Amino acid sequence: MDLQDKTMLITGATGGIGLSTAAALAGRGARVLVTGRNRDSAEAAVAQLKARSGNDRIDFLLADLSTQAGVRSLAQQVTSRTDCLDVLVNNAGLAAPTRQLTEDGIESDFAVNVVTPFLLTHLLLQPLSRSQRARVVTLTGGSHPKQIDLDNLQAERSFAGLTTYSHAKVAMMAVMYEYAHRLAIPDITINVCYPGRARTTMTRSVTRDMAPAALRLFWPLFALATRPDDGSSAEKASRSSVYLATSPHVDTMTGQYVDRHSKLVDWPKAVQDPATRTYIWNLVHDLTGGPSSEHSPRE
């Protein structure tokens, strides 16, 4: 895939896997837009990306993706800068230490990991539809539960740190699976990838109390394994998202899931139930005010 004439947006790209993804895409000549919540860190990330890639076509967009107002602001910034978007990488994620609600009244893990990629994808359908063949790539994470608890999607009954994070990520997978099969625009593909483990700011922010009981027994080893490195683990973990964003082998592939080796694998069992996917789709649709446009997915 020739990236010289491509415009790509990577959310949460001021560090970790997002930064490595942006570096790989910029290094191949793409025009890259990165997002972040803090101007200083965003400017530093852009400077680093330009130095690493030798590509000056890199810019940042400030946005708080924990709120729907922030997501809508980001979409407006994107459309003010470009008429055509070729790749959207939904990389931004959150593993909150405690249950907390956003200003929209949505549990924060569910808001960032599920609602945000759904809403941002929807709001950018127009510039995506102007690409000859656009791609939406969303990163999952955590350990996939065997089933999705529809009564605890927003940790209404219980919040359990990394377990809640993993639950939100698999719920996101259900939404993006459904999105790919409902979307009525054939030139936009939607796929999900698993990056594998990386030593990032997010992993270093995990506390012992956030870990499942079994992991707490080995907490010193986990803490040791998540110490900062030279960025090599994030670079390795970015390969699956870069693959979905650029490989000609997935040019027409949609509604699929690839692992950390960029290999096509089955969706987790928790995602395979149509009734579960429909329930979560309808919930997220309602939480975002039932967004509609001429480019909406089929209902």
Mind telling me which CATH architecture this is?
A: 3-Layer(aba) Sandwich
The CATH topology is given as Rossmann fold
State the CATH class. Answer: Alpha Beta
Content of β-strand: 5-15%
Rg over alpha carbons: 18 Å
Structural class, by secondary structure, is: alpha/beta
In DSSP terms (H or I, runs of 4 or more residues), the helix count works out at: 12
Number of domains: 1
Which superfamily, in CATH terms, is the homologous superfamily? NAD(P)-binding Rossmann-like Domain
Major β-sheet profile: 8 strands, mixed
Mean pLDDT: 89
What is the tally of beta strands? 8
- What ranges have pLDDT less than 50 throughout 5 or more consecutive residues? none
Strand order of the largest sheet: 3-2-1-4-5-6-7-8
The separation of the N and C termini measures 32 Å
**How would you spell out the order of helices and strands?**
EHEHEHEHHEHEHHHHHEEH
Name a few traits of the molecule.
42% helix, alpha/beta, 12 helices, Rossmann fold, 299 residues
Concise overview:
With 299 residues, this protein is an alpha/beta fold. Helix content is 42%, strand content 12%.
What does the secondary structure layout of this molecule look like, with pairings?
Layout: E1 7-10, H1 16-27, E2 31-36, H2 39-53, E3 58-62, H3 68-81, E4 87-90, H4 108-123, H5 125-129, E5 134-139, H6 162-182, E6 188-193, H7 201-204, H8 213-216, H9 219-225, H10 232-237, H11 239-246, E7 257-258, E8 264-265, H12 274-287
Parallel strand pairs: 1-2, 1-4, 2-3, 4-5, 5-6, 6-7
Antiparallel strand pairs: 7-8
Helix pairs in contact: 1-2, 3-4, 4-6, 6-12
